[in-house]
Amino acid sequence: MARLEIRQVSKIFADHTAVSDVSLTVNDGEFLVLLGPSGCGKSTLLRMIAGLDLPTYGDIVIGDRVATRLQPKDRNIAMVFQNYALYPHLTVYENIAFPLRVRGADSRLVDEKVQWAAGLVGLSKLLKRKPRQMSGGERQRTALARSLVRDPDVFLLDEPLSNLDAKLRHSAREELRQFQDRVGVTSVYVTHDQVEAMGLGDRIVVMQAGTVRQIGTPEEIYQHPADTFVATFMGSPPMNLVSQGDVTLGFRPESFLPEGNYPAGSDITRISFRVHRVEYLGGDRLLYGHVSGNLPETPAIARIPSSVAYSPVLGSETAFAVASGDLRRFETA
Ligand code: ATP
Question: What positions does the domain ABC transporter occupy (predicted)?
Fold first, then answer.
């Protein structure tokens, strides 16, 4: 295991800056998620950590070694990609054993390591299967086990769940997290899916256009976004934003409720809301409309638990409110 440090790293491709002056530290045993929209530079950053791309500026430190110019094979990292890259003609056992066979390890050691890694990811009973006889999640675990047998210092994962359907993705995410808790390898995980990032990360790095906008725990990032980009990127539907001159007010849809839902005397900020449309989601309803009255007319969304008795009169102004502690203020750029 090792600590990973990214020191003022930039990557410039011809005339395009893909990563711009990024500094961050991944603690020993930490699961760090790089999150951001397509093209924000997260894969490029991961590739530089792996040694597949060379930074234009800056350094990558793994453990106590400056690794910036080391070959990928000399970094003791393991990388798991989207497609798992398993060998279809080999059994699960031989797929997992592959990195050890390449190194010429003797067969007793190979067997010991394969059994250990397969046990960790719950594949002990499937070792004789071929990849085509397994589910997407089992293939993913095979790829994880294969990376594990090399005892990597750092695990790099580039959207490893993106090929799975929604249900499997959820269980694979859970398994991945349990696995990481058990093995405790320092991990960097790339995704553009904020739900995945929140569920997996000890901390999340939110990136945009090659730069870091915020680093924090899922809760810090969700509750206290550093700016309006992070505020709208995290959360679905996103945080409501209402601009008032040089201040932008932000409040999450679930913190925006009919005024009657707040106990008398609580510290609330009243906001008029005109509902245009209701979407029923089962546990919740989404109310789409506009805030108005005391604030500039702006589109907004409220998320109300279905258990709350409330029938909006479409098109008419209603008294809504946000607990003042849930109101965020951003400087308008
Ligand atoms: P995605 O989620 O779509 O994979 P990403 O955040 O991982 O996106 P990167 O793949 O890191 O983004 O790319 C960052 C930017 O750098 C993009 O604008 C991309 O077009 C550009 N880029 C990446 N690789 C190269 C390259 N080899 N040459 C030129 N530009 C590149």
Answer: 4-234
